[in-house]
Amino acid sequence: GDVLELDGERAAVVNKREIGRTFIDDSGFEEIESETVRQRKQMAYDGMITLIVTLNADTGALHGDPEIVTRGVRGFDSSNGNLKDAQRLVAAAIAGASRETLADATLLKEHIRVELKRFIQKLTGARPVIMPVVLQV
How many whole angstroms separate alpha carbon 60 and alpha carbon 99? Predict the structure, then answer.
């Protein structure tokens, strides 16, 4: 790109710089990381799912049904039974998880995220951003 020098009366190109793509957010002039841009594109095309599970802190057992909130995910909602199937899948993934996975919230989040992502991709072809939340009570 061109490096400009500005003074009160004129502008001049004074140098050149090698740059790649730069994305700027509307809220200011800060660069946006490429991963953020990738996630925004993915959400625009395939939607987003928030997956909330509540576990017993002592046993790691699921407390109630997993809550699944979807935004913009095509072909996946409560009207066609897919939501109930997904809840059962997540519950089974938790029940079948190793002790090590249940003891580490990061491992558990990744485990249930991957299981749900595979299910939805196979069912709908969509690859939504999935945000798992694990609460322990």
Answer: 8
| Of residues 121, 36, 115, the one with CA closest to residue 73 | 121
| pTM over cut 0.85 | no
Summarize pLDDT for 80-118 with one digit per residue, the tens. Answer: 788 999 999 999 999 999 989 998 999 999 999 999 999
The yes/no answer on whether domain 41-136 falls in CATH 3.10.20.580 is yes
Nearest to 55 by CA among 14, 99, 6, 118: 99
Other Cβ atoms within 10 Å of 77 Cβ, number:
11
- CB 38, CB 29: distance < 8 Å: no
**Sequence ranges of the domains in the chain:** 2-34, 41-136
